[in-house]
Amino acid sequence: MEDGPINVADFERLAAEMLERGPLDYFAGGAGDEVTLRENVSAWGHWRLRPRVLTDVHQVSAATEVLGKPASMPILVAPVAYQRMAHPEGEAEMAAGAAAAGTAMCLSTLSNTRPSDLAAAAPRGRHLFQLYAFKDPGVTRALMDEAVDSGFEAILVTVDAPPGGNRERDRRNGFTLPSELGTPGLTAATGGEQELSIEEIFARMNHALTWADVADLAFECSVPVFVKGLLTAEDAELALDHGAAGVVVSNHGGRQLDRALATAEALPEVADALDGRATLLVDGGIRRGVDVATALALGADAVLVGRPALWGLACAGREGVAAVLGLLREELELALALLGCTSPAELTRAHVRRAPAATA
Ligand SMILES: Cc1cc2nc3c(=O)[nH]c(=O)nc-3n(C[C@H](O)[C@H](O)[C@H](O)COP(=O)(O)O)c2cc1C
After folding, report:
1. Residue ranges lining ligand 1, Cβ < 6 Å
2. Could you tell me the pTM of the whole model?
3. N or C: where does the chain have the smaller number of CB atoms within 10 Å of the terminal CB?
4. Which of the listed residues 255, 324, 325 should we mutate to test ligand 1's pocket, taking the one with most ligand atoms within 8 A of CB?
5. Contact call for residues 273 and 237 (beta carbons, < 8 A)
6. Is residue 345 within 8 Å of residue 65, measured between CB atoms?
7. Cβ–Cβ under 8 Å, residues 251 and 257
8. Which backbone phi and psi does 257 adopt, to 5 degrees?
9. Ligand 1 mean position to 337 CA, how many Å?
10. How does the average pLDDT of the chain come out, rounded?
């Protein structure tokens, strides 16, 4: 009998027992009635798998290339703000866990660890940086520069926030992000000595961002720039037209526009629009290896996981992160074998179809 956690849901339950109400609801919650939050998870189940047999699957590996370099699996850690609320060492532990699992982590602009310190904490890890744009272009530029100078491989510009979504759990709890944990990367970029409150940070973000700003960032940046947080073929086309190296199909984990499309619903049209011309990532509701297999079959190059990695971090720091990523890799490898594939690259649209109930 296995006593410890054996799947993402087990880690979620354990983390819920360990975290205080305010942080737990901040991490777990979504916007409005949380329709998108729930559908992100359930919509992967609207697809059914079409396995092929007798294909010789005695050697199967989830290993793949992500952004042109090897990774143990097509599963990356999504940018999640304020990780010191989950673990005293926050993002540094997350990075160490991702590195131990052989994959990359994306650091949030709203992180409690600055990019240079993250790189030092996990020198063998692969890191990406999530960028929020600020009204002062010098701040945006300074954030980007520190990440690039610290060896971060790509910039993910998040375009589905600000403004922040209507998080009613936080409002009922009277919860705001604790400024004493600090956002040192941002503090350095603003040239300030004092930590900014979350209200001050949001007030300084650029709510007037347009595609022209994405084009400027992509032009100025020496590493690939991705647009994170789009759900339509139209916006995917625009992202490419404005210099993006790829896109992340995402609705911010159901935390922004409630009733926005679940990412499993949005992914096929974006994949069709890109047609292999750019890197396609997706996140939202990935909890099982079969979810990852479905995403890849629908056209994603890799997925990101937000909350699952966070639950691992809250439960057991770097070991917990590595354990969650490891179990997802094992589930994916089993799914690949049972689908008749030996590697993620072998998955195609022929391996999925809509579940009968979901098409009704
Ligand atoms: C607590 C929390 C904080 C987040 N903070 C950020 C952030 O700072 N920047 C960002 O681009 N996305 C942020 N996200 C969204 C994640 O990057 C990702 O899109 C989402 O978590 C994926 O859904 P999943 O949690 O179901 O895997 C956050 C998500 C959560 C749960």
Report:
1. 26-27, 40, 78-81, 108, 110, 130, 158, 228, 250, 252-253, 255, 283-286, 305-307
2. 0.98
3. N
4. 255
5. yes
6. no
7. yes
8. -90, 105
9. 30
10. 96
- The total number of residues written for the chain in this structure: 360
The letter for the amino acid at 52 is R
Cβ neighbors of 222 (< 8 A, separation 6 or more) are 148
Query: Which one-letter amino acid corresponds to residue 171?
Result: R
The encoded tokens of residue 118 equal 């993250």
User: Is 58 a catalytic site residue?
Assistant: no
3-state secondary structure 140-181: HHHHHHHHHHCCCCCEEEECCCCCCCCCHHHHHHCCCCCHHH
SS3 at position 229:
strand
What Rg value do the Cα atoms of the chain yield, rounded? 19
d(CA 338, CA 336): 6
- Taking only the tens place, the pLDDT of each residue in 53-93 is 999 999 999 999 999 999 999 999 999 999 999 999 999 99
> What is the distance between the alpha carbons of residues 197 and 177, in angstroms, rounded to a whole number?
8
Question: Considering only CA atoms, which of 142, 152, 229, 228 is closest in space to residue 192?
Answer: 142
Pairing of strands 64-66, 69-71: antiparallel
